[in-house]
Specification:
Number of strands: 11
CATH superfamily of the largest domain: Regulatory factor, effector binding domain
Radius of gyration: 34 Å
CATH class of the largest domain: Alpha Beta
Largest sheet: 4 strands, antiparallel
Order of helices and strands: EHHEEHHHHEEHEEEEHEE
Strand content: 15-25%
CATH topology of the largest domain: Multidrug-efflux Transporter 1 Regulator Bmrr, Chain A
CATH architecture of the largest domain: Alpha-Beta Barrel
Number of helices: 8
Strand order of the largest sheet: 4-9-11-10
Helix content: 25-40%
Shape: elongated
Distance between the termini: 90 Å
Length: 274
């Protein structure tokens, strides 16, 4: 329908809240052309019925359709997308929601790491006393298996042997692997006890000598982030002229067994230095 009221491009731009530059671009790509172009002045005029088309273009853009898609829809289907096209846009929306959720999760993790940054950089150098430990060394399918092994195998066997844990309690693990691996990990669990008992198939007792100097660092958060703390430890060792002289100990203070919030897991990494 052609109406008598014609608007110059500036007026049409103003009332539709769209720039003249955008209207000229739409004309170039054939999306929406003026109803009249004065052959002498070159002035462009728009019909009031094109308000509806402009609103529809804006609506389709909001739904995620590109200008080329919108032009095809207007030219071939009266501006109405097919059910298949709508499903495609819905899938893109779901993908974008998942991407945003992942970004949100990673930002939260970054916030928590930065919140604990000062704690993570508080190095302590201290001695570790000589102790007697109940030890269990095993090749596990994964590091996660350790947290099932402790309450279900090691703990009951120590109780059967009559072990009395030292006060305050002190336990740690040693990673005997020469390289990083996700499976077949060689891990030793040690817990300080008041006195030796007779060795069993599961538990071996041994004397652990004093460590005169250990660099200790609190690691907060997931065990998958240990590499971040190791970067700090090696930087400190290098900068201060130390060297690592024995296997590091991982002393698990708070973890999956008593803290639901992963950011509150606390592990003290104890590194013998000389």
């Amino acid at each position: 329908m052609i109406t008598k009221i014609k608007l110059k491009i500036g007026e049409f731009s103003k009332f539709n809240q769209v720039t003249v530059k955008t209207l000229r671009h739409y004309e170039r790509i054939g999306l929406m052309t003026p109803c009249k172009v004065d052959e002498w002045t070159g002035y462009r005029y728009y019909d009031v019925c094109q308000f509806k088309m402009m609103s529809h273009i804006r609506y389709l853009k909001r739904l995620g359709f590109s200008l080329s898609e919108i032009k095809t829809l207007i030219d071939e289907n009266g501006g109405i997308p097919s059910a298949e096209m709508i499903e495609g846009k819905l899938k893109l929306c779901k993908d974008e929601i998942n991407r945003i959720r992942n970004t949100q999760r990673e930002l939260g993790e970054l916030r928590d790491r930065l919140k604990n940054e000062e704690k993570m950089e508080n190095y302590i150098i201290k001695s570790l006393p000589a102790i007697v430990v109940a030890s269990h060394r095993r090749v596990l399918n994964s590091y996660q298996d350790l947290f099932d092994l402790c309450p279900n195998v090691i703990g009951p066997e120590m109780a059967r042997l009559g072990c009395v844990c030292s006060e305050p309690g002190y336990c740690y693990t040693i990673d005997h692997n020469k390289d990083y691996r996700k499976t077949n990990v060689d891990v030793e669990y040690c817990e300080a006890v008041c006195e030796r008992k007779e060795d069993s198939e599961i538990i071996k007792f041994k004397d652990v000598p004093e460590v005169k100097k250990a660099l200790c660092l609190n690691h907060y958060g997931s065990y998958d982030k240990f590499h971040e703390s190791w970067a700090k430890i090696y930087a400190y060792v290098e900068d201060n002229g130390y060297r690592i002289v024995d296997d590091p100990r991982f002393c698990y203070i708070d973890g999956i067994w008593n803290k639901e919030d992963e950011s509150q897991w606390l592990t003290e990494i104890q590194v013998p230095i000389g």
